[in-house]
């Protein structure tokens, strides 16, 4: 069991990037400013969630392209892109392009499954092929192949004045090793390991053999590494909701406590037909949060985190939370901020 003296190696954060429908630019600009702040504070990575037909970032790859030009060091990730909304070949082109623009800092995370509310959206998304679309692991395999440089066509060469490649261009060397799978089940964990991906495990898991969140998450981490060619060295990042209050105002502390209290009932038992388990939000001083993390069985198994920011807070709240994570909680977990270039 790792002790508090064994350091957290990589510290990141995850945000949804909410915006006002009447003024969407301000919300997107706020997200970019938060990423810039994360780099100044020494965070190792910043991750964006993905929302379609909602008031959150629908195109994280585009936002990360902008972030790549406003930062120089911090790694930029997606957690996660639901591939049911994507064409793997086109997505591979976009990811490679942004990775090159960022200087090799992109960490794309993906997941499978049909799009949310598929019956309502399939006519707009796949008007002619809705019943034929495959939303399983094969969709990820196609993306992996394209990103890793396998041929996408049997045609290449010169046609007139144009030169054609048989693989996705541009090709971003190294990006194939920085692809992550966001999984919440044992099957997903094993599949990600078998396909030499990295593994994102969040605050939501499927209750299959247990109803203890930490125990379930630990089983996923171990199943992933058992199946991965790199074994115990295979990369896993944990994404719990963490809200330190060290420098928070009394009003912020009250808001954070009310937010967590409202969400706590769903953590007691599995939710819905899929039996999803939710981790409790960790709210309190950094010392209190560090103690709870070291008591968490899955946290003791990993050395990378991407702490999730709450969905509905204000920009100033995120500044306070990120500052406390970087200056108080991170050091309490043995982490050291990245050197500024």
Automatic annotation (TrEMBL):
<dbReference type="Pfam" id="PF00296">
    <property type="entry name" value="Bac_luciferase"/>
</dbReference>
<dbReference type="GO" id="GO:0005829">
    <property type="term" value="C:cytosol"/>
</dbReference>
<protein>
    <submittedName>
        <fullName>LLM class flavin-dependent oxidoreductase</fullName>
    </submittedName>
</protein>
<feature type="domain" description="Luciferase-like">
    <location>
        <begin position="29"/>
        <end position="293"/>
    </location>
</feature>
<dbReference type="InterPro" id="IPR036661">
    <property type="entry name" value="Luciferase-like_sf"/>
</dbReference>
<dbReference type="InterPro" id="IPR011251">
    <property type="entry name" value="Luciferase-like_dom"/>
</dbReference>
<dbReference type="GO" id="GO:0016705">
    <property type="term" value="F:oxidoreductase activity, acting on paired donors, with incorporation or reduction of molecular oxygen"/>
</dbReference>
<dbReference type="InterPro" id="IPR050766">
    <property type="entry name" value="Bact_Lucif_Oxidored"/>
</dbReference>
